Here is the input.
Amino acid sequence: MSEILQMLPVLAVAVGINIATGMYYSIGTQKIHFNLTILITGIAKALTVAVTFIGSAFCFEAADLSSIGITPSFAMTSAILLYVGKALGSLGKILGIETK
Here is the structure.
């Protein structure tokens, strides 16, 4: 459980930068008007995904699946990589870098 708790701040930062870069891209680059409903929906989606990864990490720890390579650290790292990857994708769009 301590592994999960130690990685929570990193996950929170990853989710935050994903939301921030996504908002900047939509509002600053695409000139889409700010919509509170879309923001709240995006935050709810991010929290749902983050809580799912945290819950999965807890289940992996409780079931001790480390013998097959599934650890709480793996689940938390996967969540962090997901959100940082999405944020970097948005950053690339902001900077005008084409991704395929």
Summary: The first helix runs from residue 2 to 29. Residues 11 and 80 are 5 Å apart (CA to CA).
